[in-house]
Design a protein that fits this description.
Distance between the termini: 60 Å
Strand content: under 5%
Number of strands: 6
CATH class of the largest domain: Mainly Alpha
Radius of gyration: 24 Å
Strand order of the largest sheet: 1-2
Helix content: 40-55%
Largest sheet: 2 strands, antiparallel
Structural class: mainly alpha
CATH topology of the largest domain: Serine Threonine Protein Phosphatase 5, Tetratricopeptide repeat
Order of helices and strands: HHHHHHHEHEHHHHEHHHEHEHEHHHHHHH
Number of domains: 2
CATH architecture of the largest domain: Alpha Horseshoe
Shape: globular
């Protein structure tokens, strides 16, 4: 195969010399003799295909329904023994999808291959290294949000050096500092990056996330950095305030995801079963009688229905009794009877469960607007109400667009028309939603709307923000059958594999390895 490529290359160069266009050929096509240059790009593509970035059955069936969706109170759970104890095996799967079978090993492999290139090739391929680092940073922050201190600086030695060593656990706050600083440098790099025609063409194919659009990558980078700065803002307010102020006052230097057209979404091909959103179809509906797609009473009835939330129709399928969520105050038998009789609302089939066109969601304009609203309200940097109301409108528009772009297989459900502007205006002006009250009340409203916007597609971000801000204030019934886990944890326990195979390094963090040890940014 390589010989054929070489022959094809020579033939192209011969034609180019005849037509006196050799320089254009060099610019527009990657030389097959330099085969490693294409390999870095393919590794980058594979990195984006991680099962925690694209929507997959396994993620939704094991982790969203069992951990982040449950602890964010998006998914109703029947009262049962050890209902707040996550599966050890599923937590290990989440850990491994970052380390041994996913992000870290792919990033280290990209680094290793990049370092073998000649300097001229590195100049062409460095864009892949920088964009891969963005994904690496994003996923690393999510792992920190779940576990706290994690192996970071020394992780992935087998891929990077072909030698096995046991990685130390890095301090969680130091990891955040590295990521926040690194993202700022990447934004600077992307602002002045120039790509050859060949690299542009290759990047547009390999970058299945943003198709090589570096402006959108900068929006992603800066929005991710804004998220992380706000996440540390209660524990390191001076740094967060200074950096966020600089970003929000200089949008030309720090462009953000400011409109739904700029949302950072991994869109999969709905006609390809293995890579479409079949994960929602099977994952969310697994175990529907216990941890399935049932609405919670608080989210559906207290927050949404009571305020005539326009998203209700695209978030939920009404049950026999209409839009009713599961109450945690009922007995287990009463809860199971309601579920068995179909009386409770379930996650909407048209928008989510049967929709093969649901994307992987990394950042939305609504999230950015709510982050801006919080910063404006706390630090008087701008008009918080404008950002807050923009976030609500963007969220409503986003979810209706998902519903209206649905693709089904062997299923049919009519899409829902976008609510009239007057209806959305009335919702925003309603007594429970209107931007009024004390600063604490306003921050509570911002936090609640951000939580609603995340929903199951970003349940991990929702759980992190609920712990950081305390909004909304979620109430969980105690599990009297298991005294050591009466309530949901504030972090996950390290996998047993770390205790067994990385024992010396684990011993240094063992004292922190409790379900009640807060992540460093959680100071509520």
């Amino acid at each position: 195969m390589k010989k054929l490529f070489i022959q094809a290359s020579c033939f192209l160069l011969l034609l180019a010399s005849i037509s006196s266009c050799s320089k254009k050929i060099e610019d527009d096509y990657i030389n097959p003799d330099n085969s490693t240059t294409g390999y870095v790009g393919k590794l980058f593509t594979y990195m984006l295909m991680n099962d925690r970035i694209r929507p997959t059955y396994w993620d939704y069936a094991t982790f969203v329904t069992g951990v982040t969706g449950k602890y964010s109170q998006f998914i109703g759970v029947t009262t049962k023994a050890q209902m707040y104890v996550p599966s050890i095996g599923y937590n290990l799967d989440r850990w491994n999808s970052y380390y041994t079978s996913g992000i870290v090993n792919q990033y280290r492999e990209i680094q290793k291959n990049f370092n073998t290139l000649a300097s001229t090739q590195q100049a062409e391929q460095i864009i892949y290294l920088q964009l891969a680092k963005v994904i690496y940073y994003d996923q690393t922050a999510q792992i920190v949000d779940l576990w706290g201190d994690i192996p970071f600086s020394e992780a992935g030695s087998l891929n990077s050096t072909n030698s096995l060593s046991y990685a130390k656990f890095d301090d969680a706050s130091a990891i955040y500092d590295t990521i926040i600083g690194g993202l700022k440098k990447i934004n600077t790099f992307l602002a002045s990056a120039t790509l050859s025609n060949a690299t542009k063409t290759d990047l547009s194919k390999q970058d299945i996330l943003l198709n090589g659009d570096l402006t959108k990558w900068r929006r992603y980078v800066n929005s991710l950095r804004l998220r992380l700065l706000m996440r540390i803002s209660n524990v390191n307010e001076s740094v967060a305030k200074t950096e966020v102020t600089a970003m929000l006052n200089d949008p030309a230097t720090y462009p953000l995801v400011d409109a739904n057209t700029n949302n950072i979404l991994l869109n999969m091909n709905p006609s390809v079963t293995s890579f479409s959103s079949e994960g929602l179809q099977a994952g969310i509906t697994d175990g529907a009688t216990s941890d399935g797609p049932i609405a919670t009473e608080y989210m559906l009835n207290t927050v949404m229905v009571a305020n005539s939330d326009p998203r209700t129709d695209v978030f939920w399928n009404p049950g026999v009794d209409g839009y009713k969520g599961l109450s945690s105050t009922l007995t287990t038998t009463e809860q199971e009877n309601l579920i068995a009789k179909g009386k409770l609302a379930t996650i909407d089939s048209g928008t989510f469960v049967m929709n093969r066109n649901v994307p992987g969601v990394l950042v939305t304009a609504a999230e950015v607007s709510f982050l801006k609203a919080e910063a404006y309200e706390r630090w008087s940097l701008g008009t918080a109400q404008t950002a807050y109301e923009a976030g609500i409108r963007q969220s409503i528009s986003f979810y209706y667009s998902l519903n209206q772009a649905a693709v089904f297989s062997g299923y049919t459900k009519a899409s829902v028309a976008t609510p009239a502007t007057a209806s959305i205006d009335a919702y925003i002006a309603g007594s429970g939603i209107a931007y009024s009250g004390t600063t604490a009340v306003k921050l509570q409203k911002i936090g609640t709307q951000k939580w609603l916007n995340f929903f199951i597609l970003q349940a991990g971000q929702a759980w992190a923000e609920v712990r950081r801000t305390g909004y909304p204030s979620l109430t969980f019934i105690n599990d009297p059958s298991f005294s050591s886990a009466l309530q949901p944890p504030v972090r996950l326990l390290y996998p047993t594999t770390e205790k067994s195979y990385n024992a010396a390094n684990y011993a240094k963090v063992a004292a922190k390895d409790t379900r009640d040890t807060k992540i460093f940014w959680d100071v509520n």
